[in-house]
């Protein structure tokens, strides 16, 4: 089975970094996903039908996860679902595992500040990158342009909360 799914839940364990025999880092944690239901007898919402997944994130991406998330955080995870089975002295065991393609906080429950990591290809397009002619930049380091639609609005690279161009749609995607 190799289905792609999206799961919303809470970290049930803190992220833990391990190394494979070839040196590749793997960050893993347990994710608890459940449904909430109103219990009229108790007069409050209760969690029911919990599913638990083992989540694995590889290499530098996993290192970012380990530095960014902690036990209890509410997250959204998209990845490939695998059912791993093995036999024990008590019979067969099966556990659902997610190999992560994308992960992030669930912003219904809080706010976050995104700090982009340095990336050689992406950073080559930023002001002040090697090989850029300094005459093409304005006093603030932003690229100068006579076209008002291409003038920067003051938003920093990766600033999802502000439009990146004057007159542009504020939606970052």
UniProtKB/TrEMBL annotation:
Keyword vocabulary terms for this entry: DNA-binding
GO molecular function, one term: DNA binding
Domain of life assignment: Bacteria
Gene encoding the protein: ssb
Xref: PANTHER family: SINGLE-STRANDED DNA-BINDING PROTEIN
UniProt region (Disordered), positions on chain: 111-173
Source taxonomy: Bacteria, Bacillati, Actinomycetota, Actinomycetes, Micrococcales
Family matches, as PROSITE patterns: SSB
Name the record gives this protein: Single-stranded DNA-binding protein
